[in-house]
Structure formats: structure tokens, C-alpha cells
């Protein structure tokens, strides 16, 4: 009996303790619920207090923050979204979204929209575009480190790729919201908006014609200087806060600035697109059947086509912005995708057809010189002598000048002389002679202030044998007969001697 009671006693005690524990838990649970109800009532009161504060014109910015957090605590995602949006647009403080209160609505669509709009994020497309941009950077370096290349052509095509790369990089910063953290990166690629056309045009001119660049070619980049100085610099000089306002669309001071980028860029792309197309199709028309020629033509054709796709997609994007106020994601991505394709295509060709960059241009020139018996150095020497004969010696005034006699003076063959004329002036011998003669005739007629000279005298002076040939050549070059030209001089000068 004693043993039984000793055994039963602990069990009884244990049962008593269990009951007490259950009662304690129930009390704690009741208190927790009461505390939660009290907290919710307090938050509701606080919510109403802050709403009244807004109505009484109290400083609204800190109130927006409080209302956003309170509504998040109360699991009101729509109200939390509204006030968080207002707070961020006024303070640009994105850290509010890291507040623990937003954990209560983290699964709501409203909070996901806030995260998507303001916080740093990465997705498949941002990684893809970043990867393509890195390929582009590497390609630019490789193209400029190659040996035995036409440096001018490679600098132009690598610069063209670099412009695309910088735009893609800025798009990645925008896509990931990193631009909010580094607002001074805003619009940095826009400074190159008018360089797409000139760079590609000069590249095509170089590889299709062997064009030698002049100081005047710098004028192609003059619109870029104007764009930076008068449109973009006022934006670049803004502080970080003002740039974030522009990104969020809350700034009105530069609301339509993009039109001053979009319209000139579209015009530049279209104009240079036409010029590039003219060069390309002229090359096709005059091309040979060699494999090297075919490879370079295919390369140029594909570059031109990708560029046209970009122009078209950019035009659609700009029109959707101007007409609808926004563009669909697929429209916005289309011209970025076209840029990415351009980068990848150039990279692929640098790997698959390296001769296009390292030897293609040089081989085309050498093969042309080899067929005519010319070397590059001899061609340059003959070209310089040709300029001297026409500009300094005015050989065109000799009415007996012929391709054979000109070749004798140059000390080369008739075929070589014809080729040098074509390369230097892009015309044949007779067109060149007549051009210089008519230019000289124009100078003589303009300086004849008293009208003492007869047309036939001028014709003989510049190298023509008769008046008919002179009149025909004059009208072809000026769209006027010599008599009409003299009359136009008289009308403009109002000379009594006319």
C-alpha cells in the first residue's frame, strides 16, 4: 500500500502540473490575442490620426511614410502601395521597402509592383543583355589590337560596336533599377545618339571605295557636339535628385527633352541609311566574282540590313512614345534586341571570317593594284603628280591633251592613268578635263566685270576647240548655257555694263 501511494503521488503531482501548464498557456494565448487586438485598435487610431494630419496640411512626406508602414502592418496592400509610392516619389528613399512591416504584404501584387519598380533586380533578359555587352567590349579591344589591318576601318567599325554596347549597358542599368542608385549614369549613351549613322557611313566609304579621310569629315560629328552642348549638358549638369525625378517622371522642367534627341536621331539614321545603301549597291554593281569580294559584300549587306531593322524598330518605339505616351515592352525591347544582334553578328564574323577585319580590305586594294601593275606606293605617287599637273600646271588648258599625252607626263601607262583618275576623282578622263575647264571658265566670267570677253574667247582660253562643245559641257555642269550664266551674273550685280 505504501509502495502504491508512493508511485501514485508523483503521477498525481505530474497531472496537477500539466493542468497548471494548460491553464497558463490559455492565459498567455488570451493575453496575446488581447494584445494583438489592442495593437490593431491602436494602429487604426494611429491611421486615422495621420489621415487627419494630411487633411490639415501637415508636412505630408513623413506622414506618407507612416501611413505606408501602418497599412502594411494592417495588411492593406493597396493603401500601403499608394502611400509608399507617394513617399518614394517625394524623397527618393527606396529603403522604406526594406521595413519589416512590409513582410505582412510581401505576397501581394501591390508589393511585388513596388519591388519591380524601385528595388535592384535581375532577370533572364538583364543577364543576357549584360553578357552581350561584355562580348561587345571584348570585341572592341580585339579589333583594335589586331595586326596587319586597315586601322581606320577597324577603328570605325569598333567604335560603331562600342556605341551599341554603351546603349545596351545603360538599358541593363535601367532594367535592373541600378540607375536609381547611380543616377549620374542616366542618359549617358544619349550623347552618342547621332554617331550611329556617321560611323557606319564612313566605315562603308572606307571599305567600298578605299576612301582617304580628310579634315572636313569631322563635320559628320558636328551635330553630336550640338546635341551635347545644347540639349544634354543642361541635363548632365543636374544633381542626383533632379535626375531621379526625371527617371520617375515627376520632373516637368525637361518633360519633352527626348524629342530633341529622338527627332534628330531618326533624321540622322534615315539620311545616313540612304547614303550607306547607295555605297553598298554601287559596290555590288561593280563587284567582281572573287570569293573575297563575295565574302565582303555579304558582310556589308548583313550589317546594312541589321542597321535598317534597328532604324525601323527605333522609329516605331519613338512614335509609340509620342502618340501613346508609353511603349509596350516588346516595342521597347525590339531596338535593344537589334543592337544586340548587331554586336553578336560582328563578334561572330570576327571569329568565323577574320579576314574581313584583318586582311579583307587590304587584299581588295592589293588585288586591284596587281591587275594593273600598280603598287600602293606607286599609286599614291601618281595621284600626287596628277593633282600637281591639274591644279598647279593647269594642263587641262592644252586643247590637244589626251589620255596618252597625260600618261606620258605621268610616266606610266594609259591604263594606270585611267585608274588613278577614277580613284582620285571618281570620274573618267574626259569628265575630269571638262570639269576643270568649266570651273576655270566660270572663274573667268565672274571676274569679267565689264563684259569685254566673248564666249568663244573664254572657250579657247580654257582649252575647248569650238563653241558648241563648250556650250554643251557648260550646261551639263551648271544646268545653264554660258549666255544664261552671264545674264544671271548681270542680274545679281546689276552692272550697267551688262
From TrEMBL:
Signal sequence, renumbered to the chain: none
GO molecular function: DNA-binding transcription factor activity; sequence-specific DNA binding
Keywords tagged on the record: DNA-binding, Membrane, Transcription, Transcription regulation, Transmembrane, Transmembrane helix
SUPFAM superfamilies named among the record's database cross-references: Homeodomain-like (SSF46689)
Domain HTH araC/xylS-type, chain residue ranges per copy: 385-488
UniProt xrefs under PROSITE patterns: HTH_ARAC_FAMILY_1, HTH_ARAC_FAMILY_2
TM spans (from-to): 124-143, 155-174, 186-204, 216-236, 256-281, 302-324, 330-351
Source superkingdom: Bacteria
A Pfam family hit: HTH_18
Protein name, UniProt field: HTH araC/xylS-type domain-containing protein
Species whose genome carries this gene: Yeosuana aromativorans
Lineage: Bacteria, Pseudomonadati, Bacteroidota, Flavobacteriia, Flavobacteriales
